[in-house]
Amino acid sequence: MHNHPNFRDPAPPCLEQRRKPILGVAEAVEFLTGRIAEQARDDSVPLTEVERKQLSFTAVGASAEEIATANDFDSRNDSDEFEAKIAKLLRRVFRHDVQHGRVEIWQRHLAALRDQDIYLLVMVDQAGIPRTKAKLAVAAAVLSAAPRRLIRTLAHAMAGLVALSGFVYFFLLPMK
């Protein structure tokens, strides 16, 4: 990575998985936590290894030691603040990846986590990142739409409303 905050290499290391199918939950969690860590580094937001491990916590099948570590983390940290920090990082990295045509990678990784109960998914939801393929495609289309295209579409919609209101005013109202 270069030191300039707005410069990013074309394909960060965790995106090189594009060519490999996602086989399991561990790879999907590693992808998401890797993207969060990269965004944190780019934004100069501190992210400790303990915080990163906390993201992959699941109570299902957790050992007594893992549950104790999670409880200790919760008692030492403000969970709302932590979740807000991670959600913000997720929003930024998701937006970046969508703008660079990487929505399919997110689709595959989130699909692998579909039926999982992992703490990280709480922040994915808080970030407003859709977890179904159809909703991800819609979000990608909205995020990648150029502002000029959006303005042009709104201008056409407004012109249609003006024409419709003229029709109503001149043709339908006089009939009363």
Report on this model:
The protein has 8 helices and no strands. The radius of gyration is 22 Å and the shape is elongated. It folds into 2 domains: 13-144, no CATH class; 146-176. It is mostly helical and 176 residues long.
Distance between the termini: 70 Å
The topology string of helices and strands comes to HHHHHHHH
Total helical segments: 8
Poorly predicted segments: 1-7
**General shape:** elongated
Tell me about the largest β-sheet: none
Q: What is the total tally of β strands? A: 0
Radius of gyration over all CA atoms, rounded: 22 Å
Structural class: mainly alpha
In total, the number of domains comes to: 2
* Mean pLDDT across every amino acid position: 80
What proportion of the residues is helical, as a percent range?
Answer: 55-70%
Q: Beta-strand percentage?
A: under 5%
Which features characterize this protein?
176 residues, disordered N terminus, elongated, 2 domains, mainly alpha
Short description:
The chain is mostly helical and 176 residues long. The protein is built from eight helices and no strands.
